[in-house]
Predict the structure of 8-oxo-dGTP diphosphatase.
Amino acid sequence: MTNVAIPPKKYRRIGVGVVWDRDRQRILIDRRLPEGELAGYWEFPGGKIEPDEDVAACIKREVQEELAIEVEVGDHLITIDHEYETLKVSLIVHHCRHISGEPQAIACSEILWVTVDDLDSYQLPAANYQIVQALRNKI
């Protein structure tokens, strides 16, 4: 029997924005591209926090890069530590307010404005369900 070394899982800190419309009735979600990790899943926008970048700056940058809109980053909602098969993540989630721009699917396949109750209709990555639960508890 040979011992095969299992490489350590990559770890990423991810800034995540729960982007509310101006009336705070609907949230923006986007669908991951059809290739890559978690292909085709719906998610809240965000991405990897760069070295020496704070969470709010990351969320603003990622939302601008992925959806071409400007947001104001608000209160912290929840931090989730989750392990996927090949990756460990810390999702640092903040409420955001859509300020300007028309959302565009730049780094995703589609985007939708949905209510919190609508979120059950979309396949989300496992860690995202804790975000949905936190949203329900805060409403």
Remarks:
- The domain at 10-138 is CATH 3.90.79.10 (Nucleoside Triphosphate Pyrophosphohydrolase).
- The CA atoms of residues 78 and 104 lie 26 Å apart.
- The chain has a mean pLDDT of 92.
- The chain has one domain: 10-138.
